[in-house]
Design brief:
This protein is mainly beta and 287 residues long. Helix content is 7%, strand content 21%. The chain crosses the membrane at residues 20-41.
Length: 287
């Protein structure tokens, strides 16, 4: 179901020094999450303060709300397309590799797509991503993509501003971005509220980081725009954790891929396959 029109703005950490066009500003909320995480509310929520007192929403004189993009005809994409054509095809494992019994038990039985994010170690911002598709023979892997996660690595108890990505299994139901819908089967919210500027932790420009995003359902309400700031577990548990376009450095809590790979992922994810993301450092995932 398409998202409704939203008026949105962001308040981001000073370290990112974002540049937000004045036309985008309609409401003001305090947010935490990605490298300059976006968050938003519907105009009807303007008078309601952010959850946990993290910020207050106030109406502005004008707004240029994000709009739901009319979706072009669906196309299918094989995330293995970017793999080395000369490489041999690995055997299809009966179960997802690198995961221990505790992690495997958290994956819903109906899941037929798994985005597996494996961090180098608990305190590293480097990780690898593989999209697995469940078939009659087992879990068929796609290509292996390099990625970034949060600056300080991973945590089992994510808190707003801790600069660590949450470890766990989370559903993937909603997408969006500054650019037009590339043809994903996920609901897609497109608009100028996904604009970001400034620089990241290593001085790299952040512009374009939110060209494509997929919301990770950590402390958020599924079925809403990635910009929705609802935090069911409270503001202190953070939120706004996304898959988004890599800007060449660590994120605040998100996972980032190259623009090409984000587009491939958007085209591959299918709500009918109940996609989830399994994310964490390698040692934690083996539990």
């Amino acid at each position: 179901m398409p998202f409704g029109t939203r008026a949105t703005t962001f308040t981001r950490p000073d370290s990112y020094r974002p540049v937000i066009p004045a036309a985008v500003l309609a409401l003001s909320v305090v947010l935490a999450g990605c490298a300059g995480t976006a968050g938003g509310v519907r105009p009807a929520d303007a008078a309601r303060p952010a959850a946990g007192g993290a910020g207050a929403a106030s109406a502005a004189a004008s707004a240029a709300p994000g709009t739901t993009q009319a979706r072009p005809p669906r196309t299918s994409a094989d995330p293995r397309a970017s793999a080395d054509p000369g490489a041999s095809t690995p055997p299809t494992p009966a179960r997802l590799p690198g995961l221990g019994p505790r992690t495997l038990a958290e994956i819903p039985a109906e899941a037929r797509q798994v985005v597996l994010v494996t961090g180098r170690d608990k305190n590293s911002s480097a990780s690898q991503v593989v999209l697995y598709r469940r078939t009659g023979a087992g879990w068929e892997p796609g290509a292996t993509w390099s990625a970034h996660n949060a600056l300080k690595g991973w945590t089992d108890d994510h808190r707003a501003g801790d600069l660590r990505s949450p470890i766990g299994v989370f559903t993937l139901t909603d997408a969006g971005g500054l650019l037009a819908d590339p043809g994903t089967k996920l609901p897609y919210d497109q608009g100028p509220a996904f604009t970001i500027g400034g620089t990241g932790f290593e001085g790299e420009p952040l512009a374009g980081s939110f060209d494509y995003v997929v919301a990770i359902n950590y402390n958020r309400k599924p079925g809403t725009s990635p910009l929705d700031w609802t935090r069911p577990q409270g503001a202190n548990k953070g939120g706004g954790i996304w898959l988004h376009v890599d800007h060449g450095g660590p994120a605040q809590g998100c996972v980032s891929l190259t623009k090409k790979h984000m587009r491939e992922l958007l085209l591959a994810l299918d709500p009918a396959r109940h996609p989830v993301i399994v994310m964490g450092d390698a040692a934690s995932l083996r539990r």
